[in-house]
Amino acid sequence: MRIGEIAGQAGVRSSLIRYYERIGLLPAAFRVSGQRRYDASVLRRLAVIDVAQRAGLSLDEIRHLVDAGSEPISDRLPDLARRKLPEIDALIDRATRVRSWLETAAACDCQTIDECGLFDAVCQPVPEAGTVKRSAHPGGSLTQGLRGRSQAPTRRT
Amino acid sequence: MRIGEIAGQAGVRSSLIRYYERIGLLPAAFRVSGQRRYDASVLRRLAVIDVAQRAGLSLDEIRHLVDAGSEPISDRLPDLARRKLPEIDALIDRATRVRSWLETAAACDCQTIDECGLFDAVCQPVPEAGTVKRSAHPGGSLTQGLRGRSQAPTRRT
DNA sequence: CTCGACCTTGGAGTCGGCTTCAAGTCAAGC
DNA sequence: GCTTGACTTGAAGCCGACTCCAAGGTCGAG
After folding, report:
1. Residues B58 and B150 sit within 8 Å (Cβ to Cβ)
2. Which nucleotides of C are covered by protein (CB under 7 A)?
3. Which of residues 59-88 of B touch strand C (CB under 7 A)?
């Protein structure tokens, strides 16, 4: 199949497929007089990339995972997986909090966000609510610190 | 408290707080001869923004939620919440799939990604595995279509 | 043999989310 | 009064993830 067909079936633009190839997320496609030809397996790959990315992995991280698959798995895969697990747990946790709050908000008629319990729904039980203060030791702050950010994707389209 | 102190406690840069104020995510701070002064409540706000953002809401969406709180809740809040719920459900679902795969990967010694079941762990049970083909009707494709992307944040720092 | 649809490449542009920089202001201690 | 460190602003820069564009190549139907 040519790139346009793949793109159509995957629901992405051809430019994205070329871009992924360029940055090493997809292996260089087989060419017929310059034009890329694919078999259906690239659709799986694209699906995996999509899900992983939406789950908060960067293209670079995904590339490591996927690279590992094209040749004997590098010893970096289990390491990466172990490093990434707590992050994704945190993501799921946050998303769950926000979800539950959104659920409330979808039905409520409070006058302020705080009446809706946004903060409490969304943040870890803070040691002393009201006394949201803390010694400014770097990294240790509100709800285990806003710091240490390094999450998730940006999606347009 | 001055901006630097808030930033320290929240574990972010002052520039981020100014930026959030600029784009309307934080209300314009009270000034003392030009310099911003805050009370601790802004820490809650920052925490909420952080969690929501990491849960996949854009700053713009968060602004709508948070705007609504500063004045009587706009009628857009429940709407936004209802629109956002399925998205966040999808996010949680994807993250959960990836999580379970990562868990496997952390312990495995397979030779290829596919042996690790990346695709199967990460994608919806596809109608006919192997027959990953479909009529290219826009939006309807692999794993309910990669299309319609519009998720989650980008975080550096 | 031409036409139109589709493909190629490299490079520039866009967008969200920030940070950095330059040039200047403020306040507290010596 | 002067220095020092934290603050101010606006503008520019950066990064990830893409898309778009121009100038051309490929190919199958008519």
Report:
1. no
2. 6-9, 15-21, 25-27
3. 59-60
Q: Give the CA-to-C1' distance from A121 to C19 in angstroms.
A: 31
pLDDT in tens, B35-76: 999 999 999 899 989 999 988 899 998 888 777 555 545 556
Q: What sign results for the dihedral spanned by CA atoms B1, B6, B9, B14? A: negative
Neighbours of B125 (CB within 10 A): 7
Q: Is B104 left (phi over 0), alpha (psi -120 to 50) or beta?
A: alpha
Which residue is associated with the tokens 């930026």?
Answer: B19
**Residue for token digits 């820490």?**
B43
For chain B, count helices (H), then strands (E).
6, 2
DSSP, residue by residue, B34-86: TEEE--THHHHHHHHHHHHHHTT--HHHHHHHHHHHHSS--THHHHHHHHHHH
Nearest-CA residue relative to C1' of D17? A154
Which of B51, B64, B116 is the mutation pick for testing A, counting most A CBs within 10 A? Answer: B51
Whether B78 sits inside 8 A of A105 (CB atoms) is yes
pLDDT in tens, A48-64: 999 999 988 999 988 88
